[in-house]
């Protein structure tokens, strides 16, 4: 019995021709901040087109870039669904951006081109110029890879997968050939690192990663991994993990079980050897995230969100000793005064203050999922405050949210209900001031998935 956790579906991808223009200029020159008299950065907006159902994002991904100054201007209007660049991908593209915003990295997700790595120079508007060569990581991690750009100066990307197989001792004897006994579930992880500058595979390793003997005897196993993150020293790679469980008496899936402490897989870097697993005593639940980066290095430590925690999402801290810091307790339920907080995406600025996209038990069910909200978080003070300056609507679904562009202390956020127009909002993390920016023109059933 073998469970594969790679999504290898081939889905048709058809997008209409580029038809309309928008009010922002397609300026091929790098943007200039006229107030500061120096170069600004591009803000690339990502839009996910509807496939079969509102908010599913399965119709493909379009991107459009404007200057940071235009992104703050509410008189500007952009329509990526009508006049955007199609990011190659069968379903929702997995996008990353260089730290200066001048390059977009993409690995196509699913279909015939799944696993293909491409990168583009950002020139403004729908003008994204292919640069460098392409490379496929599909032979290593499949055609639907979970990947992330490491924070090492835009040099390296990393993609991961896990395969699982239940180990059954058939214990056959001449008198009884039906005495099958579940022993454990073997989780084999694969990790590949990719040279983003030269489009080359740097390293690939596979490992069997066990849990404790007690956990495995009770049917627990690692069922999904994602979001590799480098520690501050650059010698360890942290990989977020999700646990699942079977009933050890039957080897059938168990959905009603005790949630264990949050776990992270650690590998030596860059060798990708010597796997180990650490467990939090503060938070429970998953650390693999979903579409957005789930862990960030800040001030010598790595801060990591968890999901599906019975006490609400925490931001956990892994110290320079590569162990969870049990003295750092930051629970979003307590900080926000809600129940069942679930961190969907987040991103800190360099000052240790961050934006968090979340939902909670009180979220209204919208057209494609539970209503999402945004909060300003302080990692040092362990405080969180809902951003009330953003207009909320029950159809703001942030489950597939992928990215936040950071420009100094400012963080750029796309806010629009599924199938409805919205705006870019710019959060000054130092002051808490929110600026309403350029209008986002939407189309039926589609949504915006962030800035890069």
From TrEMBL:
Keywords on record: Signal
Entry superkingdom: Bacteria
Signal peptide: 1-28
Alphabetical list of PROSITE patterns matching this protein: PROKAR_LIPOPROTEIN (PS51257)
Protein's name according to its UniProt entry: DUF4374 domain-containing protein
Taxonomic classification: Bacteria, Pseudomonadati, Bacteroidota, Flavobacteriia, Flavobacteriales
């Amino acid at each position: 019995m073998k469970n594969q956790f790679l999504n290898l579906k081939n889905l048709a991808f058809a997008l209409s021709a580029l038809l309309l223009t928008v009010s922002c200029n397609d300026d091929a020159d790098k943007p200039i901040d006229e107030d500061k008299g120096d170069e600004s950065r591009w803000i690339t907006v990502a839009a996910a087109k509807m496939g079969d159902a509102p908010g599913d994002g399965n119709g493909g991904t379009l991107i459009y870039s404007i200057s940071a100054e235009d992104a703050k201007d509410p008189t500007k209007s952009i329509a990526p669904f009508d006049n955007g660049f199609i990011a190659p991908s069968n379903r929702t593209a997995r996008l990353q951006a260089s730290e200066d915003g001048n390059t977009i990295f993409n690995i196509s997700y699913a279909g015939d081109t799944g696993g293909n790595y491409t990168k583009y120079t950002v020139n403004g508007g729908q003008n994204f110029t292919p640069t460098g060569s392409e490379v496929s990581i599909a032979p290593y991690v499949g055609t639907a890879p979970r990947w992330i750009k490491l924070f090492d100066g835009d040099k390296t990307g990393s993609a991961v997968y896990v395969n699982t197989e239940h180990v059954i001792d058939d214990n056959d004897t001449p008198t009884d050939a039906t005495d099958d006994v579940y022993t454990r579930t073997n989780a084999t992880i694969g990790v590949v690192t990719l040279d983003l500058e030269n489009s080359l595979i740097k390293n690939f390793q596979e490992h069997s990663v066990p849990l404790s003997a007690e956990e495995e005897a009770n049917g627990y196993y690692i069922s999904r991994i994602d979001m590799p993150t480098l520690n501050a020293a650059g010698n360890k790679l942290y990989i977020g993990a999700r646990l699942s469980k079977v009933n050890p008496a039957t080897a059938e899936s168990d959905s009603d079980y005790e949630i264990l402490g949050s776990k992270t897989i650690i590998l030596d870097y860059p060798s990708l050897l010597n796997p180990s697993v650490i467990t939090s005593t503060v938070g429970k639940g998953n650390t693999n995230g979903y579409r957005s980066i789930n862990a960030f290095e800040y001030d010598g430590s790595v801060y990591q969100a968890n999901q599906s925690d019975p006490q609400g999402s925490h931001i956990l801290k892994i110290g320079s000793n590569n162990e969870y810091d049990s003295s750092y307790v930051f629970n979003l339920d307590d900080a926000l005064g809600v129940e069942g907080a679930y961190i969907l995406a987040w991103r800190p600025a360099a000052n240790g203050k961050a934006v968090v996209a979340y939902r909670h038990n009180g979220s209204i069910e919208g057209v494609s999922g539970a209503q999402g909200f945004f909060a300003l978080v302080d990692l040092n003070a362990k405080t969180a405050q809902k951003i009330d300056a953003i207009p909320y609507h029950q159809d703001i679904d942030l489950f597939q949210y992928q990215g936040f562009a950071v420009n100094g202390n400012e963080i750029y956020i796309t806010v629009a209900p599924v199938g409805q127009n919205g705006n870019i909002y710019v959060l000054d993390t130092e002051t808490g001031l929110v600026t309403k920016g350029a209008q986002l023109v939407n189309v039926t059933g589609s949504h915006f998935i962030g800035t890069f």
